[in-house]
């Protein structure tokens, strides 16, 4: 089992260990842009937020997921969720996924910083040789965002079943340990435009 990192904090966003206390704030974040209506990704309806939090907490108890709630630091509001998932503690290797953000948070740098925090911990603390990302073939926005990180496409899993039973073609990306320094510099450069200082 990889040790839970606790809260990961940056300049723009803090990733807090997911808890039931986050339910109301995350339900409000999902209402921002009616995120649950997007068919190419799985975002909980506000009325089902408690059940989704419990599902993720159950996966944490099983050792296959470490879930977070994302909090925007300038306003203190919750803006979404993200996780380490499909955890292979022996290798170690993880996927960063089950991520969604409120519409008003998009373009603010909070998602880029979330990825920086998660990737930095995976590579520099856990020593992962690679970190994976997956998305629906039809989710062009997500595919473009993952590619902007510097992730390389590994392939497409045709007729792949998502966790909720939806059958899709899943596009698989990854970043390797050797690629991480360049990816880190790229993310830090993007975040400087949002006033975030470059990490030492």
UniProtKB/TrEMBL annotation:
Pfam families: Acetyltransf_3 (PF13302). InterPro entries: Acyl_CoA_acyltransferase, GNAT_dom. This is GNAT family N-acetyltransferase. It comes from the Bacteria. It comes from Leucobacter rhizosphaerae. Residues 15-152 form the N-acetyltransferase domain. PANTHER family: BLL6696 PROTEIN (PTHR43610), N-ACETYLTRANSFERASE DOMAIN-CONTAINING PROTEIN (PTHR43610:SF1).
